[in-house]
Amino acid sequence: MSDRDAAEEVSLKEQLDRIEQKIDRMLGLYDALGDIAAGLPPRLVAALHTMSPAEHVALQMVLDNRSNHEISVCLDVEEPRVAEWVDAVLAKLGVNRRAEIRRLMQPLMAAIPPENYARASGGIPKDWNDKYGVGGVPDPYRRIYHPNPD
């Protein structure tokens, strides 16, 4: 294979990756519109779609009433990084306290379909905290949210 052929193959791969990302965003928007039509608050649905996978993990752990320290130990991440994620969740929801996150998001989490949540979260399942939110439990989703994948 010539250098030119290799470059064209890389370019095609990049184009396909961009197309897949656009399709994922469109499907996420479709899910969001369906969730809104089903009566879920548009502002909260939109906030879910703007959060990073790491912020979704932090969100689930905040909903479980975990402190930043507990989250950092469980995820093997520095506490300031966790604080950044939690602060981002607070900002995206337009609230100032963790209790407000729980008040707003617990009903939404109960109502949103698991497949829609997974798409909004970048692949983190809705029940991630129940299954993997304990330190030492092998987490197949770690590569999605962890800043320094193993």
TrEMBL record:
SUPFAM superfamilies per the UniProt record, alphabetical:
C-terminal effector domain of the bipartite response regulators (SSF46894)
Identify the Gene3D superfamilies for this entry.
Winged helix-like DNA-binding domain superfamily/Winged helix DNA-binding domain
Q: Name one GO biological process term.
A: regulation of DNA-templated transcription
- What are the protein's UniProt keywords? DNA-binding
Q: Which residues form a coiled coil?
A: none
Q: Which GO terms describe its molecular function?
A: DNA binding
Q: Which InterPro entries match?
A: Sig_transdc_resp-reg_C-effctor, WH-like_DNA-bd_sf
Record protein name field: DNA-binding transcriptional regulator, CsgD family
From the broadest rank down, the organism's phylogenetic lineage runs: Bacteria, Pseudomonadati, Pseudomonadota, Alphaproteobacteria, Rhodobacterales
